[in-house]
Each structure stands twice: as structure tokens, then as C-alpha cells.
Amino acid sequence: MWSKVALAVIDFQEDFCPPNGSLAVNDGRSIAPAINHLLSLPFALKVATRDYHPVDHISFATQHPGAQPFVSQHTITSPENKDETQTTTLWPPHCVQRTKGADLIQEFESSKVDLILDKGQDKRVESYSAFGPPFRKPPVAMSGFGTKLKDAGVTKLFVVGLAFDFCVKHTAIDAAREGYETYVIEDATKAVDQSENALAASRAEMEQAGVKIIHLDSDELTMN
Ligand SMILES: [Zn+2]
């Protein structure tokens, strides 16, 4: 039953965790025991992703004169198709390639994953989803995640990690759209915006796309 089931641990990196992360998610580090427990289950494929940006990445507010991190929005146009755009929040610089902030956190037993995939390396585009940037006509800077799932014969995917309302959410929505039976285990994630309204909005957006939001004690995780 587990033979077609994968686990994706999204962006469990120093820059997304207190105390020193440049884009620290409140209590981000606290989900390590939950994620390590999930790694002990017999998933056919366990993938960790890293946000892994060049120093001049388009999502950094510092690249846009006058922009404020967390506040300013920026519209990114597909480098391959001017009709595809994405309007998104700008961030403090984070997860810069070959810096400590880009490391997976030490508490995360990353030696138990089969594969570590990087995303966000193309400075021209933002990639919240583990699959790649939202530009798909044609696809731009895809990570290879989709290919790995297909090659492994996966049909069902559990998504955890950071952050619930950005990279976890977009990975799960993409997965559901690709036809995977997709679950987000909410107590193995943390959100950037932890207000109840924002959490409810993220849950609704995912559920509308066909994603199921579950918890660690779900029957889905005790299947034999
Ligand atoms: Zn990023």
C-alpha cells in the first residue's frame, strides 16, 4: 500500500527557522520531531526540497529599489511568455546558495531522505512549488520533482515543511492539479502568517484544488 506513496519535506532550512533565519517562520523549528517521525514510515520515496537562490534573486526586496520585504508586491513575467505573470510578495534575502541559511536544519534527519532537490536557482523567476515556477506555457526552470514522482510510480503524496501558506501550499496545489492524491499534514508545517483567518484561507484554497488537510493522527498515516 505504501509502494506508491511519497513524502515531500519542503524547505526545512535555517533561513526559515528561528533563531537566526532571515525569513524565520514562527516556531518553524518545532516541527522537526513530527517530520522525523514521518521519515520512519515506509514511504516509497522521501524527497526534501531546498529553496536555493542566487544572491540577486528576483524575490529579494533588495533587488527592487524602494521595495519593503513582506509588504511590497512585484509582478514577475515569464521569461518565455509575456502573457504569463505572477504577482507576489517580496522577501528579505534568504536561502542564498552556499550560505548557512540555505542549509537544511540540523535537527531534520535529512540522511533518511532519498533525494534532495533544489528550486529557485533561476534568478528571473519565483518558485514556491516544489514542481517549479507557475509558468508552464512553456514550463520554465522546472525542478525535476514531477519527473521523480512519475519515475517512482507515485500516485499519492504527503506534503509537510515550511511554509504552510507558501511553498507547502503551492506544492500541494500543483500536485493535486497533476492528478496526485495529495495530503498536507498540517501539524508538520508552520505558516508565515499564523493568524486564524490566514490559515483558514490557505486551507480553503488547497481544499478547493482537491488537497486534503490532515493531522499526524490521521488514519491515512497508519495504513498497513
Ligand atoms: Zn525563496
TrEMBL record:
Pathway: Cofactor biosynthesis; nicotinate biosynthesis; nicotinate from nicotinamide: step 1/1
GO molecular function annotation: metal ion binding; nicotinamidase activity
Keyword terms, alphabetized: Hydrolase, Metal-binding, Pyridine nucleotide biosynthesis
Residues annotated as domain Isochorismatase-like: 6-214
The enzyme's E.C. designation: 3.5.1.19
Enzyme class, UniProt record, top EC level: hydrolase
InterPro entries: Isochorismatase-like_dom, Isochorismatase-like_sf, Isochorismatase_Nicotinamidase
Listed SUPFAM superfamilies: Isochorismatase-like hydrolases
GO biological process: pyridine nucleotide biosynthetic process
A Pfam family assignment: Isochorismatase
Family stated for the protein in its record: Belongs to the isochorismatase family.
Protein name from the UniProt record: nicotinamidase
